Amino acid sequence: MSTAEGIEGTDATEVTVDTTLTKWSSVVLASLAAGVVMGIPMQFVMGIMPTVGVLYGFESLAAGWVAHLFHSVVFGVVFAGVVSLGPLKKYITFPGSVGVGVGYVVALWLFGSVIAMPLWLEAAGMGGPGVPNISPMSLVGHVAYGVLLGGLFPAVHSVARDLRVEPSGGTPTWTSAAAAGFVAGLFMTAILHFVMELMPVIAALYGLEGAAAGLVMHTFHSVVFAVVFAGVFSLPVLRRAAVFPTSVVAATVYGVGVWVFGSVYAMPLWLQSIGFEYAPEAPNIAPMSLLAHVVYGAVLGVVYPVALYALNEK
């Protein structure tokens, strides 16, 4: 008899919901990690990341990364659905999951890169490479994605059982959130400062000047928004979403929400109100900024439950 079958009523439902959330959240996290590794040769070897953005009308490196990671998650979720059904269910554990993952992405490569992508580019008027588009490097990238997806999915699902600590709203919750916000802010800084050069603009929001002042205020924002995240997801109705790996999905969605509220609307309006010379118009839709907020959310979603677990262990 399974655990869920041995519990009646509401408890059985809660166990089922927790198991489902953990499975799908695990595959989302595994998909993101596999997608990042796959994206490295796409950008630095093949140079096609901006082309991926063109599929959605945005020809830029950031838009390509956002679209690529979106594809990675969607196809990862489909993979989890496939290996959860019928005769393939026995391969959901390592190392069988790796073999299924490789077979899955080879089929995905044939459908997506060889046939669908060039047809999509031609339909968008961008002059696709023609069908069939057989690229050995693209196949290598897909195989790397499949190996990591198949390996990380069961691994993350297993780790999730050990990190199962729900936030209580006490001191460990706020301390963990502040620490996670600080770390996530550092990762986000790599994009905002070294790619977008936005630190002086952030400083201008407070009447200050220079990249150093911008870094201080950006770190302050990162910690504050992380504490707000912890507060929201300490509510009883949302508490389970703060448990790893569901926390990664929840925090990433939260990061996108912060981007919409802060970068798309609040920041340009704030800069305009203080008469900043280079204030953008609202809505200020910048794919690179969206990517930075996705990185912030994903890192927050990993570090927060790990810090919470460490503090509760003490």
From TrEMBL:
Transmembrane recorded as keyword: yes
Keywords in alphabetical order: Membrane, Transmembrane, Transmembrane helix
Residues spanning the membrane: 27-49, 69-88, 100-120, 140-160, 172-195, 215-236, 248-270, 290-311
Keyword Transcription: no
The name this protein goes by in its record: DUF1440 domain-containing protein
